[in-house]
Design goal:
mainly alpha; 113 residues; binds heme C
């Protein structure tokens, strides 16, 4: 019984992450990051247009996301850096909003699927 419940909880978590990816994470990255981290250009070897590519990561910071650990994930770290720092992302346009960062963190916490 306990096992079933845990399996159920994990499955619910995975589908929450999958829904977030499709509904919010991917559109946000596509709008703000993929022009420099995608098929056209991959700055620092990093592409953010698929989960596989995100997990493969970039040249300096390694895997951009550590599933379950938003605060240790480079993808979050670079987005909360003070504007003007070399690695602060995205380097042009406005910083991501508090809501966008919270949503990205939620996706990572839910397993980043
Ligand atoms: C205008 C182009 C541009 C956009 C848009 C952009 N980046 Fe970057 N990104 C760069 C450049 C250039 C670097 C290398 C930074 C440096 O060393 O100065 C970089 C580096 C990074 C790295 C470190 C990669 C490594 O070496 O491991 C991460 C993580 C990252 N970006 C995430 C993001 C995220 C998340 C977004 C969207 C919110 C984003 N970037 C949007 C140009 C961009």
């Amino acid at each position: 019984m306990k096992r079933t419940l845990i399996a159920l909880a994990l499955a619910t978590c995975a589908s929450a992450a999958e829904d977030l990816w499709t509904a919010k994470v991917q559109p946000l990255l596509a709008a703000r990051c993929v022009e420099c981290h995608g098929p056209q250009k991959a700055k620092h070897g990093l592409r953010l247009d698929s989960i596989d590519a995100i997990m493969k990561g970039g040249k300096d910071l390694g895997p951009a996301v550590i599933a379950g650990k938003p605060d240790e994930s480079p993808l979050i770290k670079v987005c909360v850096m003070p504007r003007g720092e070399e690695m602060a992302m995205p380097p042009k346009g406005a910083a991501l909003t508090t809501e966008e960062i919270a949503m990205l963190k939620e996706w990572i916490k839910a397993g980043a699927k």
